[in-house]
Amino acid sequence: MTPKTNCGGGGGGGGDHRLVMDAVVKVFCMHTKPNFSLPWQRRKQYKSTSSGFIIEGRRVLTNAHSVDFYTQVKLKKRGSDTKYLATVLAIGIECDIALLTVSDDEFWEGVSPVEFGILPALQDAVTVVGYPIGGDTISVTSGVVSRIEILSYVHGSTELLGLQIDAAINSGNSGGPAFNDKGSCVGIAFQSLKHEDAENIGYVIPTPVITHFIQDYEKNGAYTGFPILGVEWQKMENPDLRIAMGMKSDQKGVRVRRVDPTAPESKVLQPSDVILSFDGVDIANDGTVPFRHGERIGFSYLISQKYTGDKAEIKVLRDSAMHTFNIKLGTHRRLIPAHSKGRPPSYYIVAGFVFTAVSVPYLRSEYGKEYEYEAPVKLLDKLLHAMPQSKDEELVVISQVLVADINIGYEEIVNTQVLAFNGNPVRNLKSLASMVDSCEEEFMKFDLDYDQIVVLRTKTAKPATLDILTTHCIPSALSDDLKT
């Protein structure tokens, strides 16, 4: 997997762009990120600059990662010396888009909103406009569309339609618009490829994804996300496999490997079903569907065009018989979430044992950017392959032990999953906290992964917690979300 990094940029020429350039703004953001390793506190605040642009309805679009964990967002127009305070209306983590507005009327004076154009074709010229690092004035870069495919979106760990362009990309260009030669916006710059063999490759969020985000917000008053089919599937390119699955020579499709038990699809789809079509579009043996003239694209594109709660018709081959199902599409919930969606992390402390729920930001905080190589194999296996068995299931670990007399001998335990408490399975952090709080047995026994156990005497362990919190300047034994 080639690393892609959040940033933005890239572009190509033609047309009178001077008017549309006035709609491009510079975004100043102060961020205060949670400290996932010490979940009761926040990290030192830092500032970032990026780009954005004005659209109709007195709104501004930029990237979600430009305003992640924001405490203050300000916007500056081209050629102006004033920064205006902005309000964040919606953040779309999966599609890396954020919607802002400004209450000051002066900000909107003399600017025409950007208009959206259709999805460009290969080799179409694009011009990306923004405020890359290293200058206060607007920067224009040119290029052409070199590829259109389902891309991995770094910020939300999702797969959505994206444009690849051959233009130099610089940090700070994030959130800037990409214009076609008619001056219509065809996308938002959002990440670049960092690889020793690749130069000048940038990525743009295309208009279908932007339109989906805006319409979702307008329809629901909030961002609800992109639906997903809660299945893992396998290609059916091998002829012997197709015959064994009872497929006729003219039938094509993909085999269902596993179905997420928490997804609505789990009521109708089964492992080894062959999905033949989605909403009347036939799926090929390699999982692609036709896309424009002479192009093919992964069938997840069809799903991402829908909205959460929409119905979809799925044709399935099961035991050589055809079935048609109408499925209500939901958003997907991972056992180890890719993002905390702006919320502070949950934690619970008893006798110096710090319990928390595992998420990707937590793994990144503990093991750095290379967490996919550094984290314990058991946690990575859960991250990549485990499906939640219930809607509220979390992976609870002892993240560290704050050393005290009460927990002597347990100091080495770090990032180890808690499976059960006094014989009862631990479903999530809240259930563990309430079981410990209400425990009246003589001993508290925690069953951990790797067949380890932690045993504490109840009547001494609970009172010891307060002293440990005082020593470490921790304001509370549990996070606010567990108090309700």
TrEMBL record:
Coiled coil: none annotated. Residues 238-329 form the PDZ domain. Keywords: Hydrolase, Protease, Serine protease. The keyword Hydrolase applies. It holds the Pfam family PDZ_3. SUPFAM superfamilies: PDZ domain-like (SSF50156), Trypsin-like serine proteases (SSF50494). The keyword Protease applies. InterPro entries: DEGP_PDZ (IPR041517), DEGP_PDZ_sf (IPR046449), PDZ (IPR001478), PDZ_sf (IPR036034), Peptidase_S1_PA (IPR009003), Peptidase_S1_PA_chymotrypsin (IPR043504), Peptidase_S1C (IPR001940). Transmembrane segments: none annotated. Residues 336-481 form the Protease Do-like PDZ domain. Belongs to the peptidase S1C family. PANTHER family: PROTEASE DO-LIKE 9, PTHR45980. This is Protease Do-like 9 isoform X2. It comes from Spinacia oleracea (Spinach). The lineage of its organism: Eukaryota, Viridiplantae, Streptophyta, Embryophyta, Tracheophyta. The gene is LOC110788127.
